[in-house]
Amino acid sequence: MSASYDVVVVGAGPVGENVADRAVQGGLSAVVVEDRLVGGECSYWACTPSKALLRPADARRGAQRVDGARQAVTGDLDVRAVLERRTSFASGWDDAGQVEWLRSAGIDLVRGRGRVTGEREVTVIGADGAEQVLTARHAVAVCTGTRPVVPDVPGLREAHPWTNREALEASEVPASLVVIGGGVVACELAGAFADLGAEVTLLVRSRLLGGYEPFAGELVGEALAERGVDVRRGVSATRVRVADGVREVECDDGRTVRAAQLLVATGREPQSDLGLETVGLEGGWLQVDETLRVLDGAGEPVEWLYAVGDANHRRLLTHQGKYQARAAGDVIAARAAGRPVDDVRWGVHAATADHLAATQVVFTDPQVASVGLTAAGAQDAGLRTRVVDYDLGAVAGAAIHADGYTGRARMVVDEDRRVVVGATLVGQDVADLLHAASVAIAGEVPIDRLWHAVPAFPTMSEIWLRLLETYGRPTP
Ligand SMILES: Cc1cc2nc3c(=O)[nH]c(=O)nc-3n(C[C@H](O)[C@H](O)[C@H](O)COP(=O)(O)OP(=O)(O)OC[C@H]3O[C@@H](n4cnc5c(N)ncnc54)[C@H](O)[C@@H]3O)c2cc1C
Ligand SMILES: NC(=O)c1ccc[n+]([C@@H]2O[C@H](COP(=O)([O-])OP(=O)(O)OC[C@H]3O[C@@H](n4cnc5c(N)ncnc54)[C@H](O)[C@@H]3O)[C@@H](O)[C@H]2O)c1
Known about the structure:
This is NAD(P)/FAD-dependent oxidoreductase. Helix content is 30%, strand content 27%.
């Protein structure tokens, strides 16, 4: 069997869906190839179920931090109800709804594993072994995402540890859990399972939430410890054994931790083992240009091949991947029609924000919301910066939001251009404060103009006024 389309997308995660959607809206035909569930890692084993799992305990703590409401919230979490709510947000691991969305958007679906078998050609092997050859008149987009990495610790694989996938499908909460890793997945899921009643030990090789402002990992670590998580920093697992169903993890500090279950959260690897060598390319993380075209060994873009989302390793985040997808789908349509390509910095076809204004919210408690460059990142980029910090708990809106509110905010200013280039907020419910900073950074709004963006009283957004006051009023 064979079929021809304008665009062939491999991988129907959030990113592949959006590349196809923009291409179809640009007047092209598109097919997506998927070998698991339409919706990808994000919908079933990552973003959505993890946030659904975290939310009930956050809501309960939110009420407990407000005197008067606290007295009304006295019971424990209903673990069964929490897991059922998580399952409903994962659509019961059934992709019928997303398949219907594809149909309504005019995108075809071919189920099976896709491989690149020639220039502009993808061969799909279905679950029944049947092959289908898909030819792309204009572009093939690799949107195959990532899988979890399991490090080479003796005995670890044999212990069948959970990765994010098993953890987010769990139908029971283990009595005890050892989490290996100190990144976003480790911090979010350690908190989630501790809230659900597991005794959690977190083995962190270096520091928590490396890559963020250092105070983020410090505040999150303190809060996890307060909730009973045993956070061990500077500790690595050296050997794992299973004895009578108990996992025993030997560590390089000489101690052994025993637990009913193990969760590995040590990063991701690409799923680009797609036969790219047939077109002279290597697999691994796929390097791309600003319009998401794959670069060949000589650094030149391959005219017909795109890599979008996690597959290109620019930002392993759903919303940044979907942002890239909008640019990629549109530029594929523009190139197909011979229309101009707008790939200058901040152009409609360039994923500039990946470098300068990428956003992320870590859904721990406290949450960590960040956009753009950290203080260290701005220095590494050679900018002359000024860093302004403020105690988020000292803002009236935060004090009203929760008794004893603890948090911190940082703004990084490029002193030469007098624009904000980075911001980080750590505190309860800061996620939705982030977008103001994203607009300021992507818009390169002069800092003097920001004084005219007046946050309402008494909201937590007054943190922006406090940061400006700390920075100093402009002098005419
Ligand atoms: C636990 C966890 C929580 C997360 N939480 C968040 C969050 O809150 N917010 C956020 O922004 N990001 C979060 N992320 C990151 C987010 O999940 C990814 O950035 C996002 O899923 C990337 O989307 P994608 O479409 O590029 O890849 P994926 O979602 O991985 O989708 C890729 C798809 O391609 C398919 N595929 C792969 N190879 C082939 C092939 N050869 N043939 C056919 N199909 C193939 C896969 O089956 C999959 O469906 C989280 C990640 C984890 C692990
Ligand atoms: N809320 C969100 O936006 C969200 C939530 C979860 C995940 N994500 C995304 O998913 C991606 C993957 O997250 P992650 O936490 O798996 O990866 P990560 O890269 O964020 O963290 C990996 C952690 O594992 C540690 N590590 C690596 N190898 C190790 C080893 N051999 N032994 C011990 N520790 C080791 C690292 O030091 C680090 O602490 C992230 O880039 C993140 O952006 C986003």
